[in-house]
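Re: [ENG-882] Designed sequences occasionally contain unexpected residues at chain ends

Forwarding the minimal case from QA. Structure tokens:
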């Protein structure tokens, strides 16, 4: 227990020293690169390596992304950098329906505000920040010029993917009660630096005694590759304001209902309405 206690004391001391250096008003920008892996399952087992590579190349725009986090002591604004599709030269319009929009986190008011666009309709998702129960670990490593400490957490998968959709979500086996299904959990591994004493991070990750520079969850890893403190041009840190106001759960219900309708309408003769004979 002594090495662990000493490690926590060192982390806390570093946090206090760094916080003194940030006593004045400041702003920072953190640039992240994310990479996701894709499992082709049974379908992929029937494909050649050349076919698999072709699919990976076509989906590279969805599997590899860049983001910018603009932050101060109490709030942050997170957005994806716009990028043209490597194959077609166009933006990924389908994929954007199920990706996180611009998000604003305020740890002082415990609020999250995120804009989402789903098939041309704008939504403004307002909710409380997720309550992540972090466990501070003893491991440390260096990312760039920053010493980072490890933290882990176990979070319900649904709370991380509320803006996404999978057809498996509406395929409930016969005889299975939805309430009896086990809650799927995702293990989170994060690396934060007390040298930048803000409780912020990419996406909805927050709540650690230092900026989160790396986070891994499921098949995705997000890594900070550049930090600019007190940039000459200050970024805007304010909540999005356009869209129909909904909570996370309500937004999830909306997109799930729409996807069910699309599934049910497939194969229906053109011009034939539900219930018509």
């Amino acid at each position: 227990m002594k090495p662990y206690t000493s490690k926590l004391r060192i982390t806390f001391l570093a946090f206090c020293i760094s916080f003194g250096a940030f006593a004045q008003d400041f702003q920072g920008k953190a640039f992240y690169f994310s990479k996701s892996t894709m499992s082709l399952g049974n379908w992929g087992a029937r494909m050649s390596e050349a076919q698999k590579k072709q699919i990976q190349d076509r989906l590279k725009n969805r599997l590899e992304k860049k983001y910018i986090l603009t932050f101060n002591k109490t709030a942050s604004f997170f957005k994806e950098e716009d990028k043209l599709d490597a194959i077609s030269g166009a933006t990924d319009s389908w994929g954007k329906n199920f990706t996180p929009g611009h998000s604003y986190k305020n740890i002082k008011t415990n609020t999250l505000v995120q804009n989402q666009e789903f098939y041309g309709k704008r939504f403004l998702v307002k909710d409380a920040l997720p309550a992540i129960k972090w466990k501070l670990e003893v491991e440390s490593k260096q990312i760039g010029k920053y010493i980072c400490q490890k933290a882990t957490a176990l979070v319900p998968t649904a709370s991380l993917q509320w803006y996404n959709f999978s057809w498996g979500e509406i395929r409930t086996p016969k005889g299975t009660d939805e309430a009896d299904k086990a809650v799927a959990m995702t293990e989170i591994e994060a690396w934060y630096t007390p040298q930048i004493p803000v409780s912020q991070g990419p996406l909805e990750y927050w709540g650690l005694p230092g900026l989160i520079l790396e986070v891994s969850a499921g098949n995705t890893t997000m890594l900070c590759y550049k930090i600019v403190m007190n940039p000459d041009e200050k970024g805007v840190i304010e909540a999005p304001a356009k869209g129909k106001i909904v909570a996370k759960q309500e937004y999830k219900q909306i997109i799930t209902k729409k996807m069910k309708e699309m599934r049910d309408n497939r194969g229906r003769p053109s011009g034939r309405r539900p219930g018509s004979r």
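QA comment: On inspection the terminal residues look reasonable. The chain is about 20% helix and 35% strand. Proposing we downgrade this to a documentation issue.
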